[in-house]
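Input record, target 12 of the design panel.
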């Protein structure tokens, strides 16, 4: 979900594992030359979702990379199937209440949250996306510190033999 900490946690996980880190939203911004909000306003969500899918498919998914995806990436253009086929999918589960709290604390704008009824819209988005997010290979309840979450992910990857024991 938006505001779940994907970019922050992804950077720290990549650092802990000595892997390359990519932020899909930043790659889209770099390619388009404008920020995500402007893409949504000027070109529309369908254009953004296609660009998101194209950029994802242009990245060679491999075990030596951690990629932070946008919250809609798994939802559109068979994104979750592509992700699961090409890599290890990780879902950061954060409750809608915590997402709303983060939104207000961050004092920023998100394309899908421009509304006077943020709580209801975010709750609806969460309910709609949860069945697809739940298909991820690993789910992390991102309620602890970033460092604790990174440690939990690494421990789980090792337990499931998805990470070479000597890598960390």
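The sequence produced for target 12 reads:
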């Amino acid at each position: 979900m938006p505001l779940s900490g994907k970019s922050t946690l992804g950077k720290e996980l990549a650092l802990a594992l000595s892997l390359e880190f990519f932020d899909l939203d930043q790659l889209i911004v770099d390619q388009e030359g404008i920020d995500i909000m402007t893409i949504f306003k000027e070109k529309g969500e369908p254009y953004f979702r296609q660009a998101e899918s194209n950029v994802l498919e242009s990245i060679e998914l491999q075990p030596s990379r951690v990629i932070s995806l946008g919250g809609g990436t798994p939802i559109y253009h068979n994104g979750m199937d592509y992700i699961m086929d090409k890599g290890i999918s990780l879902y950061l589960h954060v409750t809608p209440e915590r997402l709303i709290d983060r939104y207000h604390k961050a004092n920023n704008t998100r394309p899908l949250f421009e509304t006077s009824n943020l709580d209801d819209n975010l709750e609806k988005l969460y309910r709609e996306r949860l069945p697809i997010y739940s298909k991820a290979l690993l789910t992390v309840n991102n309620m602890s510190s970033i460092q604790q979450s990174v440690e939990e992910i690494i421990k789980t990857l090792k337990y499931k033999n998805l990470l070479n024991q000597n890598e960390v």
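The beta strands are 20-23, 65-68, 90-93, 138-141.
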